[in-house]
Amino acid sequence: MAETDRKIRVLSFTRTGTRLNERICGVLRSRGKECAGYTVKKYAGGNLSPLPGDIRVFAGEDWGVYDLIFIGAAGIAVRYIAPWIKDKFTDPAVLVMDEKGTYVIPLLSGHVGGAVRLARELASETGAEAVLTTATDVQGKFAVDVFAKKSGLCLTDRKEARAVSAAVLEGERIAFCREYRECQITGEIPREIHLCETWKEAASFPHRILVSDRSGLAEEGTLLLRPKNVVAGIGCRRGISEEVLESGLRAVLAEHGLVMEQVQALASIDLKKDERALLALADKYRIPFNVYPAEELAKVREVTSRSEFVEQTAGVDNVCERAALTCGRGGKLIQGKRTGESMTSALVRLPVTLDFR
Prior knowledge:
Radius of gyration: 23 Å
Shape: globular
Distance between the termini: 19 Å
CATH architecture of the largest domain: 3-Layer(aba) Sandwich
Helix content: 25-40%
Number of strands: 19
Strand order of the largest sheet: 3-2-1-4-5-6-7
Structural class: alpha/beta
Strand content: 25-35%
Number of domains: 3
């Protein structure tokens, strides 16, 4: 997904820490984040809920769905999260603050999970000092995982991502090529990055970053970043199976050289808000699922095809295309209504901004 903030849980264990907990929750909510505070039973009340008996299990509950902020000793946080740690690409952001709010430390998933960014936000809002230990942050170097997340790009190869980061820290320059041209650049390109106009030019570098829709690229030294900027509008029969829906969408994406990981959002009419297969697909790939009333969809003036039957049953003549264009405002329709087994689909592609700030 272009970057999507997880829900946040803040955990505290002392009276002083609980006061800071309330403050942090207020700050995060004021910034539009969904945040819940928890503390030991004797300090709970107001906006803070009591911690359950087994905090270790609670910390691992829905691992990867919630970011965690512990107010207390770093060792406490480490013991509670240790059984659940997998890797930086799936772990949530985990931070620790001392109960006086002097320091805030990203412990886990600093870049991909956003712990460093969240630490900096908390530092700016509370006056705490963000203590950063990741090498690229300490040295002020380009971090490809941070860049990819800010720019809405999918990291396709973890090994190559680590190799790029290691090369940057060793002082090497990294070739950067855009085969996906419908993108703008914002911010100053870091000195570690050499912007190439052609792939031929980039190929002369030991390490290369390629922004492209290419499939099957397994070239050593090349990190492929796929734009995550596709909105898929879907109409379907009631009770469609999860397998048929996913297979149908994958087929349409493949015709355009796209993969499921590039889908930024799913969209449909509000009549489908409880459709099991759509909800399952959104949950499986953690893709936002947006629905709109027929009146909203009808505001789309031009569609590639119309169906009287669909209009009689749904209230609009083309659900998938209208939903894709409504959700993906400002984007380009790259696939008009496509009829498949028990479903219709349409694709809208949004612009990409490569964010080097």
